[in-house]
Amino acid sequence: MYVGEQWLFRDLELDVGAGECLVLAGHNGSGKSTLLHVLYGLRAPSAGTLEVAGQAPDERDGQFRRKVAVLLDDSELFVELTPRQHLELLLAGFDADLGDVDGWLQHAGLDERADVHAYYLSAGQRRRLLLLGAIARPHDVLLLDEPERALDRQGKEWLGEIVGNERELGRTVVIASHHPPLTDVADHALHLG
Ligand SMILES: Nc1ncnc2c1ncn2[C@@H]1O[C@H](COP(=O)(O)OP(=O)(O)OP(=O)(O)O)[C@@H](O)[C@H]1O
C-alpha cells in the first residue's frame, strides 16, 4: 500500500479462516487503520488482490456490507439519536431483526443510558455503542480498529467475550489492537512497520 509518498506495507500475504482471529500490531502510523480500510473496501490497494468474505471488498455493495461488520477508528455516532434509536436504525438498514433490544443494550452495559441522546454519552459509552452496533448487524467477518480505546476494565472484559463468541460462531475477526489480552488470544499476528 503506497500512501503519502511512502510504502506503508508491501508483499503482504494473509489468509485468515472462519473462526480465526488476526491481530494487526505495529507502532502509530504503521498502517493498521489503512489496512482495515482496505479490507472494508474504503480504499483500494496500490497493487495486488484481496478477497474478504469471498469477494473483492466494496463498502458500497449492500451484499458485502451484510457480510462484513466494522468498527473503525473514525466511526462516529449520530449525537441526536439515543442508543436504542441507533440500534433500530441500524437494524432497519439491514432489514434484520435484533430480537431483544433491551437485552443487547444491557449486554453492552448501556441499559441505563438507552434513551439518552448519544451527545450525552461518555467516550467509553459511545465506544460500547459502536461496538454493539458492529456485532449486532449481520456479518461473517468483523473488523475492529482499536476497539479497546476508552473502555474501562469491564468494557475490556466484554470485548474479550465478544471476540471469543465471534470465533465460536465461526466468524473471522481482524483487530488492530495494542491490548495484550486480545493480542495473546489471536490465532495470527501481523506486525506492520
Ligand atoms: N490519505 C492519506 N494521505 C496521506 N497519508 C496518509 C493518508 N492516510 C494515512 N496516511 C498516512 O499513513 C500512515 C499510516 O496511517 P494509519 O492511520 O494507517 O496508521 P495506524 O497504524 O493505524 O496508526 P495508529 O496506531 O496511530 O492508529 C500515517 O503516516 C498516515 O499519516
Automatic annotation (TrEMBL):
Main location: membrane
Domain ABC transporter: 1-193
CDD domains: ABC_cobalt_CbiO_domain1 (cd03225)
GO CC, one annotated term: plasma membrane
Membrane protein topology class: Peripheral membrane protein
SUPFAM superfamilies with a match to the protein in the record: P-loop containing nucleoside triphosphate hydrolases
GO annotation terms (biological process): response to antibiotic
Subcellular localization, as worded in the UniProt entry: Cell membrane
UniProt cross-references to Pfam families, sorted A to Z: ABC_tran
Keyword presence, ATP-binding: yes
Gene Ontology molecular function: ATP binding; ATP hydrolysis activity; transmembrane transporter activity
Family from the record: Belongs to the ABC transporter superfamily.
PANTHER family linked: ABC TRANSPORTER ATP-BINDING PROTEIN, ABC TRANSPORTER ATP-BINDING PROTEIN NATA
Name the UniProt record assigns to this protein: ABC transporter family protein
Source species of the chain: Actinophytocola oryzae
